[in-house]
Amino acid sequence: MIDDQVHFREPGLTHKGNIASESRAAVAGGITSYMEMPNVNPATTTIEALERKYAIAQKNSIANYAFYLGATEDNLEQIKQLNPNRHCGVKIFMGASTGDLLVEAPQALDDIFRESPVLIVTHCESGPVIAKNLEEVRRLRTPTIHDHSIIRDTEACFASSSYAVDLAKKYGSQLHVLHITTEKELSLFTAGPIDKKHITAEACVHHLWFSDQDYAKKGNLIKCNPAIKAASDRDALIQALHTNQIDIIATDHAPHTLNEKQVDYNQAPAGLPLVEHALLSLLDHVKHQRLSLEQVVEKVAHNPAIRYGIKDRGYIREGYYADLVLVDTNRSTKAIHENVRYHCGWTPFDKHQFSSRIESTWVNGQLVYNNQQVIDAPLASQRLIFNR
User: Fold this and answer.
1) Which residues of the chain have pLDDT under 50?
2) How far apart are CA 282 and CA 43, in angstroms?
């Protein structure tokens, strides 16, 4: 599995996770390569900060790695310096974010979509729509987790994702819209082979698994942005994997401590840890005939490699790097908080019995996980290189 969207929290937020801990959880889950997001502290908004993260990963990551530059309203010159063969992409938080990484000014967005030399990936939620929804809920009651998908609703997502798609069409940009959550947004994306598109879409494992009915049991543990929505939206996302309107499945792995999650809804951070059980969750979909094994392989290995132009990965082919996972579909895995490898120490899948087991994982031909143990041999991981 090549995971194009993770938050490993280093530097600056390492009480939640770090590159060493989260990459070890990733290989235990069959993820051999990842691309990590810029909302750390300080945010990754310069080439210098980007290369510092690569240096940390070179010393500590057990899986192959790449890092996004974060867009701001005034770092266009940094974006223009990105190397298409060495840098995976630029991440834009198009509304509903905080701090320096929020980009809402129309001129700044136009400039980035026109000038970016690399793939643009977007988090699409409209800040004004969310603010309006929050005000309406507050007039009626104190918001709780049950209001999360009402505050961050379909319209908030569609208003922003349609804006991103319009910009990409206007400038011919390479655009990948992250973590689609609504049936309505699917109308923005065409079916067909990924290598024929310049605008692509992604779904994440938790949006394919949970629905708003799970808030009653899971509470803030499944609070994430964009929000987990109705079961009908979840079912539409799964159907869109069949039609190839959604091209890639990722995790958006985003750990927070249990203490941070176990507070009032308004104060609880959004995000959940997923890399260790993501592939297992998809294999449960296969068991229940919601997806085929071939579709899972396409969405988590082939298509990320094609979309990002990753050099010599994503397929089992002679001459390619041996990034492999061996799965036993007849041995189960029980997810429990106490056994996870995440630094944060919990899983949203607590007490679920998955139908399969990750037996072994290889990164660049080196065995890094076997018999339920991560093997801390000299690191075989590499920086991802791109053919563009």
Assistant:
1) none
2) 32
